Amino acid sequence: MMGKCIQKSCVHVSAACLKKKTPAEKRWLARQLSDPFVKAAHSQDYRCRSAFKLIEIDDKYRILKPGLSIVDCGAAPGAWSQVAVQRVNSTGESAELPKGSVIGIDLLRIAPLDGTQFLCSHDIMDPSTHMELERLLPEAQADVILSDMAPNASGLRELDHENLVTMCLSMLDLAERVLRPGGSLVCKYWDGYLAHNLQQRLSLMFKDVRTVKPKASRKESAELYFLARMFKRR
Rounded distance, CA 84 to CA 4, Å? Predict the structure, then answer.
């Protein structure tokens, strides 16, 4: 449920290793190694360059604050959870600030992260996962739901778009169950013919819905994000 993220072990690539790679793999690796956000992720110890997408969104819109409860959907490898931990003070490192909480969900295994409780091998589309979240969340409610999740690529752009929108809609079912009134949601989608349907559903649930494309989201990518704020509980 996640995009490719270059790991630290990939920075130093031997000539023998390069020879074994396909031309497409070589192009991808070359792009990663020259990417300033990949370099920044290494230097700042983030698990993936995608951390900077959330950082940019939050720097501008201030949705993550100390003391808030966060649900990170499709959390692997944990970069967005890292940002959330820092900004809601879920480790309690800043004793003078309220202590928040972060719960990450993914089908994949995620390495432990201080300040986060990961629900691995959990499907965000499964109602049993929703029930588990209600049990774990303070007062059974979240202040912010984040999603950088994506389906495994099929190679068919329209099908991938449809699958991601379906996942986002399932996340909205979760929002209706656990999101606190006035809460916020950030979800990735790939531009396509169903994006308007997703936006309409969000507009029914939130007072403010807008499309954002962070600088860390590559220009050639169809990747966009909906930022929805001020949740309206039915």
Answer: 20
Burial 125-147 (b: 16+ CB within 10 A, else e): beeebbeebeeebeeeebbbbbb
CA distances from residue 24 to 20, 30, 58, 76 in whole angstroms, order as listed: 12, 10, 33, 24
pLDDT digits (tens, 9 = 90+) for 76-104: 999 999 999 999 999 999 999 999 999 99
**Token duo for residue 131:** 């029930």
Could you tell me which residues come within 8 angstroms of residue 227 by beta carbon, excluding any fewer than 6 positions away?
57, 61, 63, 184, 185, 186, 209, 210, 211, 212
- Answer yes or no: 60 catalytic: no
Q: Where are the domains of the chain?
A: 8-41, 48-231
Fold (topology level) of 48-231: Rossmann fold (3.40.50)
- Global pTM reads 0.85
- Given 20, 65, 188, 232, the catalytic residue: 188
Q: How far apart are CA 212 and CA 53, in angstroms?
A: 10
Q: Which tens digits make up the pLDDT trace of 192-213?
A: 999 999 999 999 999 999 999 9
Can you tell me the distance from the alpha carbon of 9 to that of 74, in angstroms, rounded to the nearest whole number?
A: 23
